[in-house]
Write a structure and sequence with these properties.
The chain has about 160 residues and is α+β, with helices and mostly antiparallel strands. The protein has a single domain, classed as START domain (Alpha-D-Glucose-1,6-Bisphosphate, Chain A, domain 4), CATH 3.30.530.20. Strand 7 and strand 8 form a beta hairpin. The two termini are about 25 Å apart.
Length: about 160
């Protein structure tokens, strides 16, 4: 199945990015990997030379999340705060994100859905930006490369968990 291990990024309307990816793992396992800090820290580190030393999640409506990535080469940190608006575990999460250095033009609203699709779980993430300019800036950034590197790590971890 060629659609596994492939990140697809498309646009919808003027302000949305739609990111889809399939994982060869059960729904609950994929959901947990996106919502449990001890699992997230192992894969959501972005490009090489980055780590995720801070990952805090209060997974409830109105709950907050805090992520801080650290670049081990130059010492730079990139922080982001999330506010959870809707939780329908293990199927749907709606949250808002705001980076400390607001490079996304006023933050984003992200709706992530997880759906079993045969032997895989399909994740769809809709990123709604405040403007077309902000959406286009995200498209031009290396975000999708960093995401795919993280998802490749997640694939390996899911395979290890399935084999355990």
């Amino acid at each position: 199945m060629s659609h596994i291990n492939t990140l697809a990024v498309t646009t919808r309307g003027d302000t949305e990015l739609v990111i889809t990816r399939h994982f060869k793992a059960p729904l609950q396992m994929v959901f947990d990997a996106h919502t449990r800090p001890e699992l997230i820290k192992r894969w959501m580190t972005g490009p090489e030379n980055w780590t995720l030393p801070v990952c805090e999640i209060d997974l409830k409506e109105g709950g907050k999340g805090r992520y801080v990535w650290h670049n081990t080469e130059n010492g730079a940190d990139m922080g982001m705060t999330a506010t959870y608006r809707e939780i329908d575990a293990p199927h749907r999460i709606v949250h808002e994100e705001m980076f400390d250095e607001d490079w996304t033009g006023g933050g984003t609203e992200i709706t992530t859905t997880f759906k079993e699709d045969g032997e895989t779980t399909r994740m769809e993430m809709v990123i709604r930006c405040k403007s077309k300019e902000a959406r286009d800036m995200i498209l031009k950034s290396p975000m999708s490369d960093g995401m795919e590197q993280g998802y490749a790590r997640l694939d390996r971890q899911l395979a290890e968990r399935r084999a355990a």
